[in-house]
Amino acid sequence: MCRHANLVFFVRFIFSPALFDNFRNMIASTPTPPYYAVIFTSVRTEGDNGYEEMSERMVQLAQQQPGYLGHESARQDIGITVSYWESLDAIKKWKMNAEHLLAQKEGKKQWYARYKVRICFVERDYEFDNE
Amino acid sequence: MCRHANLVFFVRFIFSPALFDNFRNMIASTPTPPYYAVIFTSVRTEGDNGYEEMSERMVQLAQQQPGYLGHESARQDIGITVSYWESLDAIKKWKMNAEHLLAQKEGKKQWYARYKVRICFVERDYEFDNE
Fold first, then answer.
1. Record: contact B114-A128, CB cut-off 8 A
2. What pLDDT digit, counting tens, does each position of A83-114 carry?
3. B66 in Cβ contact with B57 (< 8 Å)
4. Residue contact A117–B108, C-beta within 8 A
5. What are the residues whose beta carbons fall under 8 Å from the beta carbon of A13, sequence distance 6 or more?
6. Whole-angstrom Cα distance, residue B110 to residue B105?
């Protein structure tokens, strides 16, 4: 058996259509505008300190909120997370969610060196798909 | 001389306050709202094919446009680039810029598997800085 079998499998997996479709789906399938977006841009502190766990929990929790439409996230030097919402009221209720309030407090205490939040009204959208 | 001198220098550089400040500055210093945001979320095709060079050129070019206020960018599985503008007219003129039109055409032809563009009115913002 080829000694690189595991590597070949891994590379095939990485470039498989299935995984590619996962990335494809990571663009939020939002409804026709208008709706709202919250752009959260952040610089992390060093070390994890429970950040990843909290981050996953907040995504789970946000998805259960009334008026949640989807989210998109990427971190390279800075992190950008955009969440999409039906109304300003839905955004306000999510901001005031008890568990989310705790995460915001910890965020200021240990996870973030800096962040900026922008509340936006999405007026128009368009998309491209090469399939 | 320590054989790990280069490594030590590199690690010091990576965690240096100077570099950290660069990340800090990668959150766009936008003026008090209202203003506009264009959220560009994308899935890349495989390979570079001139993408990085075009991407840097487009940032340079956007910065020269009237009404440009700043931009933020991160790519992990998906890419998110948010550019900020004074008005819808400024966004429209940037979209119709001749060199940008060529890049958009090439983008559909070879660089992007999928993308979504959302035009937003930024109503409100707030920020946190632990300094």
1. yes
2. 999 999 999 999 999 999 999 999 999 999 99
3. no
4. no
5. A19
6. 9
Amino acid at B22: N
> Cα-flanking dihedrals φ and ψ of residue B120, to 5°?
-130, 150
What pLDDT, in 10s, does the model give residues B9-37? 555 544 444 444 556 569 999 999 999 99
Residue A29: burial class (beta carbons within 10 Å; 0-12, 13-18, 19+): exposed
Chain B nearest-CA residue for A27: B41
Please indicate whether, in this complex, the C-beta atoms of B127 and A116 are within 8 angstroms of each other: yes
The two tokens of residue A58 are 């907040």
Q: Which runs of consecutive H residues, i.e. helices, occur in chain B?
A: 5-14, 17-25, 51-63, 88-96, 98-106
C-beta separation of A99 from A59 below 8 A: no
Domains and CATH numbers, chain B: 32-122 (3.30.70.100)
Q: Cα separation of B27 and B32, whole Å?
A: 14
ipTM tops 0.90: no
